[in-house]
Description:
Elements: H1 2-15, E1 21-25, E2 43-47, H2 64-76, E3 83-85, H3 103-111, E4 119-121, H4 131-143, H5 149-160, H6 165-181, H7 201-217, H8 222-242, H9 244-253, H10 257-285, H11 292-305, E5 320-323, E6 335-339, E7 347-351, E8 361-367, E9 377-383, E10 394-402, E11 408-412, E12 418-421, H12 423-428, E13 433-443, E14 449-460
Parallel strand pairs: 1-2, 3-4
Antiparallel strand pairs: 5-14, 6-7, 7-14, 8-9, 8-11, 10-13, 11-12, 13-14
Helix pairs in contact: 4-5, 5-6, 6-7, 7-8, 8-10, 9-10
Amino acid sequence: MASTINKVAAELKKFRPGYRLQTLGYFATTDPPRGGVKPLDNIMIRTCNTETFLHETILSPVNRKFRAQVASWAAHASMLFPWEYGITYGSAGALPYPSEFTLSDNLRFYASNKSAGIFFEHENPEINDMYDLKVYMEARLMENPWLDSDALMLDFCSKYYGKASSHVLEYRRELRRTAFANHAKVRYFFPSAEDFRYIDWEAMKRLQGILACGTKKVKRNPVMRHRLNRACGSLDLALVTSLSWYYRVQAEKCGESRLFEQMHDYSRRRLFRTWDKSVKNLELLEKRSVSEKRLALLEFWRKRSAVPMKIRHDLFPGTHVFFAPDCWNVPSWNAIFLRSEAASAGAFCRIFPELGTDKKIRLVISQYNVSSQTDPVLCSSEYDNSDFMESAFSWFPAGKISLEYDDLILSVMDRHHLNWRFEYLRDLYPDQEALLLVELRFNRGTKFSLDIGSVAVRLLDR
């Protein structure tokens, strides 16, 4: 491929000598070509940072792989133009990550490795983590990477958040300390919500407490209050939607279920009130609209988080762990959450799957970091119409598994329909043998649907 691009670049130079051809160092082309082929001097390499952990700079030892790739491209090419992600991709949503502390070191590294400029992908201003602060810092550091990033943060926060500025700075510094203390492993590219469990229940209480102090300082200033509420958005999202199941379980374990419910309700009201205002401000003040897809996702989260769920310990004898239906990672375009006392948690998720020719409903436990070409399935179960009771929920075994792997995932039908990554279970009970059961109800009719309730895990004696 490198030889072909060189041929195109050579022709471009003949009739557009001042132009440059850009190509990506991305996935299959992350490393420079072997065999001595080097890009011509009018080819610009756009390296793409899909590897690094968000709370650590490119200079950190844990990010040595990507750092070596950039340095290798700099040795091969005459010019780089990196692609940096100011967002996190994937279904987890815009959850909190303290990447603003890495920006200056990262841009200085690029500037020292033949970078002519940099492109930050940073969309979705209505929702992304600390969008206002991070975009400001990106812009200033693109102008001059050697500016003092701490001074930039202090200057921005003092002017933008007013009397709440010290609390915003304390919140972000405490988030960074938490990321290091709890060994966060969040990358920009398609992290799962479970990757953000570095913010445990104790950290969530601390961080929300810091922001609550800031709220008191600006409660009489509607402009500053809205800005602060935007700063709270990603933390509220974690508590209310993406990781609500995790905080519910942790709070229940330490006797703080009531506190979880209070924090959940308060954060939910603030989150969606702030999102609604942010969307309107984009349309009225900046003359740009939020896409229908994004609005549909916000509405899905709004409806899902409005369904109360409870933990049950009276369903099975012996030692077991119970997870409510909000643990499921669900595609928003093909699912709805509904209340029902027929379901053990008082709620369930309804999907509309397309069954194969064998009309089987499959529960699969597999490893998500193992290629499908090498059979990542550890165990599975299949059920058909005759296995379901009419209009009633029943518990169906997915299979027995030893909690020895760090990349376990439970899927209904397949990973694209509904799944739950359960590293948390392994963290609690390493190497324990467990039986996973899923609460299901099959609805017959012209357009059949599948109702998925909670997950119960029985811990087995070896």
